[in-house]
Amino acid sequence: VDMVASTTDSLVERVLFVVLRSYGALFCLAVAAVELMEFDGCRQLLCCDSDWSHNVRWSRFWWARGLIYTFVGLFAAETGTECDEHASSTVEGFVLYAGYVLAAIGAVYFIMGVTCCDHIKSHQLEKYQERIDSSRG
User: For residue 46, what pLDDT is reported?
Assistant: First the structure.
């Protein structure tokens, strides 16, 4: 009876592990895709004429983007410590470091969003564009 219970528990743990890893990978891909579409060069390289990333609601708000980046970073750091037993300590260290860096970037995004830095940036860009337009005549 104990052997059947431990096999079932092991199977459930393995399924949960695979589901969590898949979920985390999809989140990471979504974050990467939204960030890549922010730059005209990447949009042109990927042959995307439409700016679909601005239709992703969470990408428009820096505070929400910060929360998601922090989640993905902490998720990566946590799962990085559970790397394959064949993975080297260098790989585990890199994943852990990259996860914490992404979490820190997410925290900065969140703080800038809460303090309305995105509106300040937009206002400054508008003023800059007006100066360029007035200098062209």
Answer: 59
